[in-house]
């Protein structure tokens, strides 16, 4: 199976129409139809249910779409990382991506410790909007990432756990709920004047809802200060809450696991060194006997 065929198939699957997919790919419709038919013959199964209104995926097609996207992303990531290595004369910096405004203290400690290691390479830090870190790691724009479960998609990555912590809700300091000793998630979701911000989906889109779209944590905290929303964050965010905000523990929110993540096929010595440093610094404490 060729990458070209996978790109053809993905375009048809996403457009649900051969004509629209051909326009998107900049090619004529007949050769695209032949390529899809040849792919189905090679696999030995129909990938689409065809109708006058368009094309829908079969169960085999759903599987190939998921696996095909991963395969194409891996090829594109390999090309990006290779180009970076060539441009840097074979000693490319490690690109670390993290959410803007999140894990600041942990990241600073990690970078300082790694810089002191023999053979450490330069680390370029890319701070981006929530939901972008896993995408950047998959498509090769980043080599390693700080991700947070259950918010980020960790599928397909190797990971080491750096921290596990409870969640809290951040509200305006003057709000009546700021005086509560703890809240439940049901209570937080039902606050009429403080809607929760909306996190991005895996494709970067946002669900409909009353809360602001979460693009930058600092910006959202300013909206909380203004009394426009509340936000649920890991407990470590308490240190950076600042004036005008109150932090209330959540009694039933799932715990957040912060991990360092990297592609399983990575051969970068810089990534390996950064991961080793992170594992040494933030190794989980042994369970109490």
TrEMBL record:
Question: By its UniProt entry, which Gene3D superfamilies does this protein fall under?
Answer: Periplasmic binding protein-like II, Winged helix-like DNA-binding domain superfamily/Winged helix DNA-binding domain
Give the superkingdom in one word.
Bacteria
GO molecular function (one) = DNA-binding transcription factor activity
- Please state every residue range assigned to the domain named HTH lysR-type: 1-58
Q: Name the keywords, alphabetized.
A: DNA-binding, Transcription, Transcription regulation
- What does UniProt give as GO cellular component? protein-DNA complex
> What InterPro entries does the annotation carry?
LysR_HTH_N (IPR000847), LysR_subst-bd (IPR005119), WH-like_DNA-bd_sf (IPR036388), WH_DNA-bd_sf (IPR036390)
Q: Does the keyword DNA-binding apply?
A: yes
PANTHER family for the chain:
HCA OPERON TRANSCRIPTIONAL ACTIVATOR HCAR, TRANSCRIPTIONAL DUAL REGULATOR HCAR-RELATED
Give the family this protein belongs to, as stated in its UniProt record. Answer: Belongs to the LysR transcriptional regulatory family.
Q: What is this protein called?
A: LysR family transcriptional regulator
Q: What organism is recorded for this protein? A: Motilibacter rhizosphaerae
List the top taxonomic levels of the source.
Answer: Bacteria, Bacillati, Actinomycetota, Actinomycetes, Motilibacterales
């Amino acid at each position: 199976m060729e990458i070209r065929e996978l790109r053809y198939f993905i375009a048809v699957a996403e457009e649900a129409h051969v004509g629209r997919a051909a326009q998107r790919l900049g090619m004529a419709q007949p050769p695209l139809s032949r390529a899809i038919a040849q792919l189905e013959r090679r696999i030995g199964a129909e990938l689409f249910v065809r109708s006058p209104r368009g094309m829908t995926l079969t169960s085999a097609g759903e599987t190939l779409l998921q696996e095909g996207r991963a395969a194409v992303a891996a090829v594109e990531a390999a090309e990006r990382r290779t180009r970076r290595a060539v441009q840097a004369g074979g000693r490319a910096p490690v690109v670390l991506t993290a959410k803007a405004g999140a894990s600041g203290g942990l990241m600073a400690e990690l970078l300082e410790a790694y810089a002191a290691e023999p053979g450490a390479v330069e680390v370029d830090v890319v701070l981006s909007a929530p939901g972008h870190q896993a995408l950047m790691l998959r498509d090769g724009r980043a080599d390693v990432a700080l991700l947070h479960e259950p918010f980020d998609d960790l599928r397909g990555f190797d990971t080491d756990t750096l921290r596990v912590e409870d969640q809290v809700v951040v509200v305006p300091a003057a709000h009546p709920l700021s005086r509560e000793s703890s809240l439940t998630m049901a209570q937080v979701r039902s606050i009429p004047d403080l809607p929760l911000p909306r996190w991005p989906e895996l494709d970067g889109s946002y669900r409909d809802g009353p809360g602001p779209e979460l693009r930058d944590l600092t910006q959202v905290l300013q909206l909380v200060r203004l009394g426009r929303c509340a936000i649920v964050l890991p407990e470590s965010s308490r240190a950076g809450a600042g004036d005008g905000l109150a932090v209330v523990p959540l009694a039933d929110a799932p715990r957040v696991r912060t991990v360092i993540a990297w592609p399983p096929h990575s051969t970068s010595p810089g990534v390996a060194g950064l991961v080793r440093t992170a594992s040494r610094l933030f190794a989980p404490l042994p369970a109490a006997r």
